[in-house]
User: Which sequence fits this backbone?
């Protein structure tokens, strides 16, 4: 079936091959890392999902590389945003909001409130600079999917992305995947080096 006007919901396989990739900014020389995975929907659309961490925040970003793909957006306090539905394990379904500057890309953010509360003003300014402009007007509780401790204590993250043509893509992320676990450990090490409080130990979570 064609993609244009298609109302069929997309089924995305679990991204089970995560690779931690080191990056260097060509302008500043600043080094960073992220975890990346690629996947294909049941009707052939190509997606990528990546995980990044900054001080006190972990972000999952989903991108649809299909031509003319566009995620549904709305306005929040005068700023265009994507709103996704997310669920950790069998918990409540929540809404996660991300900047809609890029129409085929949306993010799910988890944060550590305790770390933010203990951070210095300089660290907070650095953190704020890594967020989209709309973050100035919305608090973390308004747009984040939850706390990092909840993420780290869960086994599965389910994300539903709505498209402008009424379709929905649903993806399950195995949070216990070895590649993602390696990524989380590096995030903890980075937080320690930057004198940010590491996230609280995750509570044990049973699988489905």
Assistant:
């Amino acid at each position: 079936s064609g993609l244009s006007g298609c109302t069929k919901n997309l089924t995305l396989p679990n991204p089970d091959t995560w690779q931690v990739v080191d990056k260097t900014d060509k302008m500043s020389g600043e080094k960073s890392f992220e975890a990346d995975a690629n996947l294909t929907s049941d009707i052939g659309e190509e997606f990528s999902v990546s995980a990044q961490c900054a001080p006190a925040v972990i972000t999952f970003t989903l991108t649809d590389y299909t031509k003319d793909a566009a995620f549904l957006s709305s306005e929040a306090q005068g700023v265009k945003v994507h709103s996704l539905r997310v669920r950790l394990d069998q918990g409540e379904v929540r809404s996660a909001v991300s900047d809609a500057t890029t129409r085929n890309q949306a993010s799910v953010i988890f944060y550590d409130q305790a770390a933010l509360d203990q951070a210095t003003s300089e660290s907070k300014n650095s953190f704020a600079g890594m967020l989209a402009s709309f973050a100035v007007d919305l608090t973390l509780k308004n747009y984040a999917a939850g706390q990092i401790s909840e993420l780290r204590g869960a086994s599965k993250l389910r994300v539903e992305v709505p498209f402008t043509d009424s379709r929905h893509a649903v993806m399950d992320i195995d949070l216990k995947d070895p590649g993602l676990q390696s990524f989380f450990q590096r995030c903890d090490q980075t937080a320690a080096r930057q004198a940010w409080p590491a996230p609280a130990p995750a509570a044990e979570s049973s699988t489905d």
